[in-house]
Amino acid sequence: MSDLSNEIAGVPLLEVEHLTMRFGGLVAIGDLSFTAMREQITAIIGPNGAGKTTVFNCLTGFYKPTEGRLTLHHPIKQEKFYLEQMDGFRIPQHAGVARTFQNIRLFGNMTVLENLLVAQHNNLMKASGFSIFGLLGLPNYKSSEKEAVELAKHWLDQVGLTDRADWDAGNLPYGDQRRLEIARAMCTRPQALCLDEPAAGLNPKETLDLNILLNNIREKEKIGILLIEHDMSMVMEISDHVVVLDYGCKISDGTPDHVKNDPAVIRAYLGEEEDAELPPEVAQDFKGENA
Amino acid sequence: MSTNTQKTDVVATLKEAGLSGLIAGALALPLAGFKTFSLNGVLTAETRFDWVIMAAVIVAVGRFLLSMGQNSFLPSLSSGISGAATSVGHAINKNNKILLVLLLAAVIIFPFSPMANRHSLDLAVYVLIYVMLGWGLNIVVGLAGLLDLGYVAFYAVGAYSYALLATTYDLSFWICLPMAGIFAASFGIVLGFPVLRLRGDYLAIVTLGFGEIIRVILLNWYDLTGGPDGISSIPKPTFFGMAVFSKIGKDGLPPFHELVGIEYSSLNKFVFFYFLIMALALITNFFTLRIRKLPIGRAWEALREDETACRSLGINPTNTKLSAFAIGAMFAGFAGSFFATRQGFISPESFTFIESAIILAIVVLGGMGSQVGVILASLVLVLGPELVRELAEFRMLAFGGVMVLIMVWKPKGLLSRREPTIRLHAKPEAGEVK
């Protein structure tokens, strides 16, 4: 599997080394290593229950890994962050890892704009002198808030929600909520963006728009994107690098073309040839891709 | 066909009403069916079956009418009521500023109006204390979403810190007031550290326990707090250290009426109390309105909505919750020291769980997070029971009934509309569907 054609070139952003996560006797992730590059989209795929979301939860500090090292090379601060040692809320704050959730987690009773401002909490908090200057209404805070609104506007434009900025986030249609969650994550000015099934529940047109958005983010913001996704056509189209998990272990790692033709992957998805009773939608995905 | 279903409907409704009447009768039999009295020093009971029958009939008829009406007049009635409420709400929103100014003017003029007397002023002060406590708790429950059932503990800390500081060290009210706030806030932080990891129901139970702990300590630490005897002769505040509210001067300070050159009236003191608590309450209100629009206020609301998402955006949940807890506690501390100085006497009796429950009810009934809602709910819950004193033993029954009715009609509280803290576009016209 380690033939050279399969090596991913680029500047490393996030190195996962020997990541293991056990829940009691259950091994959710076993000795997983891979590297995600800057300005690339790295997709993590695998059958249901393969441990993909657990990887994200370890990266973003929701779980403390049992073993392993997660290193983030921060390109601007020129610093290394060992994510496995950091408190959950410090990871987005200092290391610049932002995420979205499989089941959307917006602040439903707050407006779209407020959601984007909450994402800039730490900057604004400093600017408001931990609320003291803000309470006094000093101009310093006012200008910072204006900047924050500008950033929010930029991302609202990017995801096409400017007209609905004053809506309650919970009242948005599903697809808008998914995009808003990405915009909110981007408002934390991350270096690595972890998206947990961003295309789930989207129609084909919305998925297409999402592809454009993600490509834009990668090119203009020059950050790395990690992606968990079941929509194979989307994964194969936009990913630069695909990591395949099965039962918590890496079974393949490389370019989309390499992964697509890897017998181990086909086995994991489609089963052994004897019992090749595969769900029709999976079969179609693969056929469509190979054609 | 339709008459047939109607008939079965009526039969079913009658059955249901009969069952309700039976249950009411069974409940009323032990509760109201017997009356005990002392006859020549011997405890005797007499039956009162007419009451039982009355209760059963009332419940049965009420249930029947309610079920019948559910299909016809109730929906129209409730939609009429909520329609009226919405239009009133729109009117309030439209003329917000004018209405608020008028309200404030009325509240300021009130003590100088002929309506002002010892009783009405006392009542107004009583309501305002609850408005202030409601606004304070609104920060914790309404904004940050932390269910606190022990809020009265911080109120007690504020009251006792003023009472003890003033009686032991002879400190003036104006020095003790901020200190009471700081003490209460530090209690909030001390309590907050271990328990804020808990959520929802669990947090509620722990705060409930904390409230009881404070009360039990006050009750049993006899050397410091005087236990059940409480602390008496707590000094009254001076007029900002410039005058005292008595007929003759004291401690080298002139009496207030001489300072401002008016006739002496025993009411002066109560008018001063009225304005003092109003100022404190308004400070609480302006503070809340302002901090809501700051990052910390938005973070509180975001925490209420989804703590996990907050964590993923780099917000420190512990610090954010602690700040809400401490600030809420601080305002309870201010209110507590005002309470101590107004009463002149405090004992643990004043800080029982029912107080926490009433303050929480004010916040919930008013509509979580709504500042005007707190005023309305305080009026209903604090002034209401005072106004219907004639109902005597049925007073609390009416109190509970009103609470149930409000919650049935407006499950989110009287005024539950949340105003965004910031807008990108101009505010849409009232009534326009977004």
Give the structure's gist in a few sentences.
Chain A has 291 residues and is α/β, with parallel strands linked by helices.
- CATH architecture verdict of the largest domain in chain A: 3-Layer(aba) Sandwich
**C-alpha geometry of chain A:** globular
Say what oligomer this is: heterodimer
* Helix/strand structural class of chain B: mainly alpha
Outline the biggest β-sheet of chain A: 6 strands, mixed
Textual characterization of the structure:
The complex is a heterodimer of chains A (291) and B (434). Chain A is an alpha/beta fold and 291 residues long. Chain A folds into 2 domains: 1-96 and 192-291, Rossmann fold (3-Layer(aba) Sandwich); 105-189, no CATH class. Chain A has 12 helices and 10 strands. Chain A has helices at residues 52-59, 90-95, 112-118, 121-127, 132-136, 139-159, 174-186, 204-221, 232-238, 256-260, 263-270, 280-290, and strands at 12-23, 26-37, 41-45, 67-74, 79-82, 97-99, 192-196, 224-228, 241-246, 249-254. The two termini of chain A are 23 Å apart. Chain B folds into 2 domains: 2-71, no CATH class; 116-409, no CATH class. Helices cover 70% and strands 3% of the residues of chain B. The two termini of chain B are 43 Å apart. Mean pLDDT of chain B is 82; it is low at 430-434. Chain B has 434 residues and is mainly α. Chain B has helices spanning 2-32, 49-71, 73-94, 96-109, 118-143, 152-169, 173-195, 200-220, 222-225, 256-260, 267-292, 295-305, 307-312, 317-343, 353-366, 371-387, 395-409, and strands spanning 34-39, 42-47. The longest helix of chain B has 31 residues, at 2-32. In chain B, helix 5 packs antiparallel against helix 14 (317-343) and helix 6 (152-169) packs parallel to helix 8. Chain B contains 17 helices and 2 strands. In chain B, strands 1-2 form a two-stranded antiparallel sheet. Chain B is globular, with a radius of gyration of 26 Å. The interface between A and B is large, with 48 and 31 residues.
